[in-house]
Amino acid sequence: MNNPRNGTALNHRGTKATCVSKSWKSLIADNFFIKKHLKRTQNDPEFSKKRVLINIADIAPRTQPGSTIKSCSLTLKSIFEDPNVNTTEIEYPSKNESHSDWIVGSCNGLVCITIRENTVLLLNPTLRVSKRLPDIGFKKRRGYTVYGFGFDASVDDYKVVGVFCYPGIVKVYSLRANCWRRIQDFPFEVFSNEAGKHVDGTLNWAVFSGQDGDFSIVSLDLAQETYKEVTQPCYGDRVDERTLGVLDGYLCVLCSYRKLYAEVWVMKEYGKRESWTKLVSIPYLPYERSEMFLTPVSVSKSGEILLRYGVNILLYNPKKNMFRIPMFPYDVISYISQAEVYEESLVSPTAVNQHR
């Protein structure tokens, strides 16, 4: 044990390990490597690097009124291929201090979360790194705030948009500048708890428009900071509910027809009305028509679609006209309030040099 050669060898190995560790840290912090890794992840046809972040509200016993939020992560591949799904709980600052944690959206591996509406976090669940944004500065008054999160490729910057309703005051946060600034007010009334959907450098909201409060879609271009109404497909008659979402990178709308069936429409080329395509028609479960189909989450290579249904998530196979429910290891009676797909990436919300 006291042999100098052994001591030298141990020191040498220790030094080598330190050098490898420093080299690895330098590599994964390199902007070119981060973008190359992200592109490979996004192009993975097996969904092995894509995960679903879900908000699970655990209903407490009567002796403990209220509920708590669990943010759990699971691989998209396991949902489609394994009937029993294991979840990994996600930790972040201020978690469970309130019952109002809300997933705003995800982009390139970063997830935006709000806590008590005015506290905003950017989180990379893969790196377990988070950043709390400066206070948005909306004074306490009647109304509510909705958010959107996306990427502005023109300046290589991640942006969070906050819309205070009413009267439609809008502020944009830049990760590069690390500050909020006010832009042109929002021109319509946004649905409450409706986060902006990020597609091709735009954020899209479902809004009320016209005297009758019709369902419309309004987009904010993150580069130009201009608003535009997005044309919709011809849904036909008897539509009683519509929800806006993003399905595998495409803007989508789920339409419910008198709770008899629902249709999923996707915009194959953003901004082109003629590119709207009806992806699938889904029958309602005859014994649970009190529940509503909500936004779809993802589609497998075989065409099986994952979507939220009431307080759960389920899979529908249009070829077999068959439903199945993934089995989660719940410890208590729970319901799923949100489901958001994100990619495993090396993009850090705290590394400013990555965004220049």
From TrEMBL:
Pfam families associated with the record: FBA_3
Domain F-box associated beta-propeller type: 81-324
InterPro entries for the chain: F-box-assoc_dom_typ3, F-box-assoc_interact_dom, Gal_Oxase/kelch_b-propeller, SCF_F-box_component
Domain of life according to the entry: Eukaryota
PANTHER family found in the cross-reference section: BNACNNG10540D PROTEIN (PTHR31672), F-BOX PROTEIN CPR30-LIKE (PTHR31672:SF13)
NCBIfam families: F_box_assoc_1
UniProt protein name: F-box associated beta-propeller type 3 domain-containing protein
Organism: Gossypium darwinii
